[in-house]
Design a protein that fits this description.
This protein is an alpha/beta fold and about 230 residues long. The protein has one domain: Alpha/Beta hydrolase fold, catalytic domain (Rossmann fold, 3-Layer(aba) Sandwich). The protein is built from 9 helices and 6 strands. It has helices at about 25-30, 45-55, 70-80, 105-110, 115-120, 130-155, 185-195, 210-215, 215-230; strands at about 10-15, 35-40, 60-65, 85-90, 170-175, 200-205. Strands 2-1-3-4-5-6 form a 6-stranded parallel β-sheet, sandwiched between helices. β3, α3 (about 70-80) and β4 form a beta-alpha-beta unit. α1 crosses α9 and α4 crosses α6. It is globular. About 50% of the residues are buried.
Length: about 230
């Protein structure tokens, strides 16, 4: 296992909607010198615009991590530049097209950001993870309603990635919280099945944000994945 981790590996982390670098703080801290981490946020109103932005700032070759909205963006980055993405770690994202008739999250974040943030804080983490919910609210307040609305607009207008997943030949770690109330575990399992080289793991007593709620086991799975997989591709 040791060969791949002897030198730091460039890893780009894309946060979930209304989240910032604090979403990945525990994982990055646990990984230490074994990775060179870069957290990139690009709250534009289309995923295509954010793909261009992320690729303009990312290293020449890198492992890519994304959660929820960030996972959808990570999929589009990998599809746009598969030669640059050595490995993927996806959490809480849905590769299908958005469902019609859903709540207007972008409009809510524009008109009543505090109310929407409070509502989301009760959904994004496990019901017993009060501290994680409080951390989500802190991140969301820092990001703000305007940037959050742009992210929500990008999610609501995203193209379906499902028909294109077979093109992703790099290794993929798909990690899901067993109690994800936003994107069910079944979606993660289907996503992993549709990817050519995916490993699927579920964390018990965990909601939509594994790296916030369970950073140590999440980091352990990621480091094991990096050690075992990408250097073979």
């Amino acid at each position: 296992m040791g060969g791949y981790l002897e030198m730091p590996n460039d890893v780009v982390f894309i946060p979930a909607l209304l989240c910032d670098e604090a979403l990945y703080h525990g994982v990055i801290e646990a990984a230490g010198a074994r990775i060179t981490a870069q957290v990139l946020m690009s709250p534009k109103s289309s995923l295509a615009e954010s793909v261009v932005d992320v690729l303009s700032r990312a290293p020449a070759r890198f492992a890519l991590v994304g959660t929820s909205y960030g996972g959808n963006l990570a999929l589009e980055v990998a599809l746009a530049a598969p030669e640059r993405v050595s490995a993927l770690w996806l959490m809480g994202c849905d590769p299908a097209s958005p469902q019609a008739g859903g709540p207007d999250l972008a409009g809510g974040l524009t008109a009543q950001p505090d109310a929407v943030i409070d509502m989301l804080a009760g959904l994004v983490v496990h019901k017993d993870a009060k501290a994680s919910g409080a951390l989500f609210k802190e991140m969301a307040q820092r990001i703000g309603g305007v940037a959050g609305a742009a992210q929500a607009t990008a999610l609501a207008t995203r193209p379906a990635a499902t028909p294109r997943l077979g093109a992703l030949k790099m290794p993929v770690l798909v990690l899901w919280g067993k109690d994800d109330a936003i994107v069910p575990v079944a979606v993660g399992r289907t996503l992993a099945n549709d990817l050519p080289h995916a490993h699927f793991h579920v964390l018990d007593d965990c909601g939509h944000l594994p790296t916030l709620e369970k950073p140590i086991p999440a980091a352990a799975l990621f480091l094991e994945f990096l050690a075992d997989e990408p250097h073979h591709r």
